[in-house]
Amino acid sequence: MHLLLHLVARLHLWLALGLPLSSIAEERTTWELLVELLLGQERAATLAELGQRWGGLALLVGVIALLLTLFWKPLLEWLQQAFKQKLPQSQPPSPPSPDAEQLRQATTCYLERLQQDLARTTAIPIKNMLGSLPTSDYVPLQVAPRGAPPTAAEPIFAALIVQSPPPGLLLLGVAGSGKSHSLRFAALRLAQRWPSIPPQLVALGLRERDSLLPIYVRLQAWPACVAHLQQADPQQRKPSFLAALDALVYAQIKGDRDPADTPLRRFVSAHLAAENERCLLLLDGFDELPEQDRHTVQKELRQLQQREPRHRYVVTARPLADQEFTAYGFVERHLLPLQPAQIAQLWHNCWQAWGPGGAPTAQQEALLLQVQADPDLQPLVTNPLMLSAIARLATERVGLPQRRAAKLQRMVELLLSWRRNRLGAAAPLPEEHDATLLDSLGRFAFAMLVANTEQLTLEAYHSGHCWADLDPPPDPADRPTRAELYQDVQTVVLHTGLLRETQEGRYQFCFGFRDYLAAYWLANQQTYFGHFYARRADPAWRNILIFALSYATDTLRDYASVIKVVQDLRASEEPAAILLAAEALVEVNAGAGGWARKLETLRTPMLASLHALAQNATEADQAAQAQAWLNVLEERA
User: Fold this and answer.
1) Phi first, then psi: what are they for 573, rounded to 5°?
2) Sign (positive/negative) of CA torsion 582, 588, 594, 596?
C-alpha cells in the first residue's frame, strides 16, 4: 500500500512538472512495469491520456477511484470495526413503545401505586422495629444558596421556577436534614392531584399552571438494579441509563400480576420521550451511590437533560467533593436548619404518630421546652432526624432518661439501629453489629480528643500519632483495618447524622457526639481511667469525665472506678477538681431517687469539701451551687 502511494506521488510530480507520460515510457523503468502490472496496459494507457488532458487533478481522482475499487472490502471492514467501538453498548431489542391509550392506562396505574409506595416515610425505630410517619405530615423546609444569610431563605423548589430555568436543582444537606422526605412529599402530592399542582407544592415554589408527572427514584437501589439487568442478559455489558431508570422505577411500583409486556416496564422512557409531556424527575440519594458509579450517573443524567430539556430534574445528596452537577449548570441549594415553628410542628407530628394523638397538650409542649433547654439535646432539635429520635424516646413508656449520658446513649442506639435496618433491608444484620461499630466509633472519637482536634482523617488515625500520650498505647490488633473502618464510617455518615465528611476527606462528629463517644470508649477501658486525673484541669475534658463516670455507673455498674476517680479529685484539694467531682456525683445519681446506695460513702466527704470551699470568696458561688445540687439528692433520698 505504501509503495503504491509512493508511485502515485511520483506520477503526480512528473505531471506537475509538465512532462508527458511518454517520456516515462521511453525509459521503461520499474515504475512502468508496476503500473502495468497493477492496472494493465489498457488502463495504464487510458490513465496516461487523462493525465495529459486534465492534468494532475484527473489523475488523482482516477487513482482514488481505483484504490477504492481494489481495497473497498478491507476498508469497509475497518470502518465497521471502528464504528462499533464508538457505539454505546448494544441493548437488547426493546418492546414497541406503548400507544397513547396504553400509556394513559399505565399512567393511572403508576400514580395509584406510587401513592401506596410513598404513603409512609420510614422514621426512627424503637429497638429492631421499623418506625414510620405519614409522608403527608411534612413540615415545609426552606433552602438557601451556599453561605447565604438567613434572609436569603426560599421555598425548596423556587430555584426551578424562574424566567430561564436551570438544567436542574441540586439539594444538599447533612444526614437527616429532610432531603428524602421533601422529595417523597412532592411526589406523593403530585401523584394525588396530577395533572394539577396542589396548593402545598405551590407554597414550595412550583407554578400552579404547570403539569408535572412525578418520577421518584431511589438511587440507593441503583447498583443492585444494574447488576440484575446484567445478570438477566449476560451478553449486555452495561444497560443504558434509561433502561436502568425504567427498571428501577418499575421495581418500586411493580405488581404481582403484571404481564411480561406491561407498559409500566418502560414507563419512564415512554414519558420522557412523549410529546407535550413534562415530568419532574426526583433522584433521591446521589451520595448513596458507590463512588465508582457517581461520575457515570452524573454524565448520563446530563446527557438526558440535554436531550429532554423540557422536563425538571432534582437531585439530593450530602455535600460531596466529587459532585459535578453545578458544572453542568444545576442550581445548588442547601437545606436550612429547622426554625422554632417548624420544630413545634414536627414535634406535634411525631406525637400524633407515636404518642396518644389528639391536639397538642400542655405536657407535650412542656416536654419540648425541656428538650430545647437541655444543653445536650438543644443542638439536635434543628435537625429533623435528631428531633424525631428525641420524640421517639419521649413517647416511649419510660420517657427521656434523666442522666445526660443515658440520654445520649439511647440516641446513639436509636441511630445505629436505624442504620442497621436500612443496611439490612435485604439481609438483616445482627444486633451485635451495633456494639462492634459503637466500639470503633468510640475509639475514633477518643483519638480525636487525644489529638485535640474536631476533625481527623483515617490516615492520621491509623498512623498511631493520636495515641502518643497514652501509656500503654492501644493494641493495633484491637481496632478495625482502614478498609473496615472506612466502610463503617461511610455508612454512619450516610444514615445516622453522627458523623459528617468534609470535602478534604476529614471526618467530624456532629452535635457534640465526639465527647460522649470518647467517654463511652474510655469508660470501657479501665486501663485509662487514671487518664482522667491527669486531665482534671483541662476544660475540654470536663464533659468527658462526667459522661464516662455516668456511663460507668448506669451501664457498667463499675462503682469502684467511679469512687476511685472522685476520691482522687477531692483529695487534690484543687477547687476546680473538687467542683468537677461534685458535678460528676450529681450526674451519676440523677434519676436514682437520691444517692445510689454504693456511692453513699462519698456523700459526707464531698459535702465537707464543698463547705470548706464555700469559705473562699472566689469559688463561693460555685461551691454553694454544688451544695444545693447535693442537697436535692439528700431530699430525694
Assistant:
1) 60, 15
2) negative
Which residues have a Cβ under 8 Å from the Cβ of 87 and sit 6 or more positions away?
none
Integer Cα distance of 210 and 279 in angstroms: 10
Distance separating alpha carbons of residues 259 and 250, to the nearest angstrom:
13
Q: Which residues of 358-373 are buried (b: 16+ CB within 10 A; e: fewer)?
A: eeeeeebeebbeebee
Cell numbers at residue 79, please?
A: 470502518
What is the Cα–Cα distance from 280 to 233, expressed in whole angstroms? 30
Q: Distance between terminal CA atoms of the chain? A: 105
Domains contained in the chain, CATH given: 2-82 (no CATH), 104-335 (3.40.50.300), 432-636 (no CATH)
d(CA 297, CA 281): 14
Q: What is the CA radius of gyration of the chain?
A: 36
Beta strands 279-284 and 312-317: pairing type?
parallel
With H, G, I as helix, E, B as strand and everything else as coil, classify residue 443. helix
Cell of 547: 459522661
CA-CA distance, 164 to 619, in Å (whole number)? 65
- Residue 148 carries which side chain, given as an amino acid letter? A
H helix intervals, 451-506: 458-463, 482-495
Give yes or no for a contact between 581 and 545, defined as CB atoms under 8 angstroms apart: no
| Mean pLDDT score, 230-250 | 85
pLDDT digits (tens, 9 = 90+) for 194-215: 999 999 999 999 987 788 999 9
What's phi and psi for 424, nearest 5 deg?
-100, 25
Share of residues in the chain with pLDDT > 90 (%)? 32
Strands 331-335 and 169-172, how do they pair? parallel
pLDDT digits (tens, 9 = 90+) for 504-528: 788 999 988 999 999 999 888 867 6
In order of 48, 95, 454, 614, the CA distances from 42 in angstroms are 10, 57, 90, 126
Q: In what order do the strands lie in the sheet with 499-501?
A: 455-456, 507-509, 499-501
Name the E strands within 263-401.
279-284, 312-317, 331-335
Q: At which residue does the C-alpha cell 476529614 appear?
A: 506
| Total length of the chain | 637
Question: Residue type for 193, please?
Answer: R
How far apart are alpha carbons 446 and 527 in whole angstroms?
14
Amino acid letter at 339?
Answer: Q
Nearest to 252 by CA among 122, 116, 125: 116
Residue pair 602/567 in contact by the 8 Å Cβ criterion: yes
Q: Could you write out the three-class secondary structure of 82-105?
A: HHHHHCCCCCCCCCCCCCHHHHHH
Give the pLDDT mean for 92-119: 80
Average pLDDT over the chain reads: 81
Question: In the prediction, which pLDDT does 29 show?
Answer: 60
Residue 321 banded pLDDT, cuts 50, 70, 90 = confident
Q: Is the confidence at residue 362, as pLDDT, over 90?
A: no
Check if the beta carbon of residue 169 is closer than 8 Å to that of residue 314. yes
Whether the CB-CB separation of 414 and 130 falls below 8 Å is answered with no
> CB within 8 A of 450, min separation 6: which ones?
466, 467, 469, 470
- Contact of 309 with 319, CB cutoff 8 Å: no
Per-residue model confidence as pLDDT tens digits over 369-426: 999 999 889 999 999 989 998 998 888 877 888 888 889 998 898 888 888 877 765 5
Q: Check residue 331 and give left, alpha or beta (phi > 0: left; psi -120 to 50: alpha).
A: beta
CB 91 within 8 A of CB 239: yes
Are the CB atoms for 528 and 470 separated by under 8 Å? yes
